[in-house]
Amino acid sequence: MQLRKATAEDVVALRDLERAANLVGLAHVFPPERHPFPDDAVLSRWVLVLEEPGVSVLVRDADTGLDVLVAYDDRSLRHLAVHPDHWGRGLASDAVGVAVQAMAGRGTTEAELWCLAENRRARRLYEHLGWTATADQRPAPWLPHPVELRYVRTLAPGSAVT
Questions:
Q1: Confidence at residue 130, expressed as pLDDT on a 0 to 100 scale
Q2: 127 within domain boundaries
């Protein structure tokens, strides 16, 4: 997978990709007629994420914009999105693999991520890739504040991880 480092010029495309994925994959959690996508807040969050030390944001360019994004730090998979037009092609698995390999290369022995409890598609993916749900829960920052679950995965530091 050809990923490149995202730059400040990508903030709108990052927001747009996240919106496209959420409107299809999370409409049952955030019904757009009751909870419109928070465009400005997500755009502002991407500006901060791109500026945060230690966070890597990688993207893949497609003809119509970005089709994959993955953001992570030394021990956390922070964001993952694939454009719905490209679902089912293994792009999410590949992007998670890139992030996990980078974390393992940095010496991380246990990685974590937070996933909406109602995001069954993402949960199936993470569990298929070896992540395990913990008992940890928290409310999501976006209305209506659905429950997020914490997942972990044990890594062998410095090893190639698939």
A1: 97
A2: yes
The count of domains in the chain is 1
Angle ∠(125,144,131) on CA atoms, nearest 5: 20
Structure token pair of residue 34: 């009751």
Give the pLDDT confidence of 80-115 residue by residue, as tens digits.
Answer: 999 999 999 999 999 999 999 999 999 999 999 999
Alpha-carbon distance of 138 to 55, in angstroms, equals 22
The single-letter code of the amino acid at 148 is: E
- Map residue 11 onto helix, strand or coil: helix
pTM, 2 dp:
0.95
Instruction: Tell me the percentage of the chain whose pLDDT exceeds 90.
Output: 94
Predicted local confidence at residue 156, as pLDDT:
85
d(CA 122, CA 141): 18
CATH number for 138: 3.40.630.30
Please check whether residue 157 is in contact with residue 108, taking contact to mean a CB–CB distance below 8 angstroms: yes
Whether the per-residue pLDDT at 126 is higher than 60: the answer is yes
- H/E run at residue 159: none
C-alpha span between 14 and 9 (Å, rounded):
10
